[in-house]
């Protein structure tokens, strides 16, 4: 009886690991895109509240505003830049963006 319980536990464990291993995992790019999509429609002031003032902000000839936040990251082996770029329309609503290196 004890051997049957151990064998059953063994097969149930294997089955659980197989099921968990088959769950799709989002890529970093997909997660970044979800963050960008979540900001669309928000006001640019909300982004300033969340991230602080942008490192650079430019108003384009069509009235849109491009805001860039950069954060330098790294460790003893390598360094990189986390860059968030968002575009707001003339009303200040976020219409597009990208996140790289974060």
Report on this model:
Helix content is 39%, strand content 30%. The protein is α+β, with helices and mostly antiparallel strands and 102 residues long. It has one domain (27-100): Beta-lactamase Inhibitory Protein, Chain:B, domain 1. The protein has a 4-stranded antiparallel beta sheet, covered by helices on one side. The relative contact order is 0.16.
Write the SSE topology.
Elements: H1 2-21, H2 28-39, H3 44-51, E1 56-59, E2 65-74, E3 79-88, E4 94-100
Antiparallel strand pairs: 1-2, 2-3, 3-4
Average pLDDT confidence is: 85
Choose one word for the global shape: globular
Compute the separation of the termini in Å: 54 Å
Strand order of the largest sheet: 1-2-3-4
The tally of beta strands, per DSSP, is 4
Order of helices and strands: HHHEEEE
Instruction: Write down the domain tally.
Output: 1
Judged by helices, strands and strand pairing, the structural class is alpha+beta
Per CATH, the class reads Alpha Beta
Q: Are there runs of 5+ residues with pLDDT below 50, and where?
A: none
Radius of gyration: 23 Å
Number of helices: 3
Name the beta content range: 25-35%
Under CATH, the topology can be stated as Beta-lactamase Inhibitory Protein, Chain:B, domain 1
Describe the biggest sheet? 4 strands, antiparallel
Q: Which oligomeric state applies?
A: single chain
- The helix fraction, in percent, is 25-40%
């Amino acid at each position: 009886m004890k051997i049957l319980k151990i064998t059953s536990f063994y097969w149930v464990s294997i089955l659980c690991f197989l099921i968990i291993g088959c769950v799709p995992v989002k890529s970093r790019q997909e997660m970044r895109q979800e963050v960008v999509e979540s900001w669309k429609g928000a006001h640019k002031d909300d982004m300033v509240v969340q991230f602080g003032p942008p490192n650079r902000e430019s108003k384009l000839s069509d009235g849109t505003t491009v805001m860039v936040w950069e954060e330098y990251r790294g460790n003893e082996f390598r360094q990189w830049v986390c860059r968030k770029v968002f575009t707001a329309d003339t009303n200040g609503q976020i219409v597009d963006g990208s996140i790289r290196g974060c």
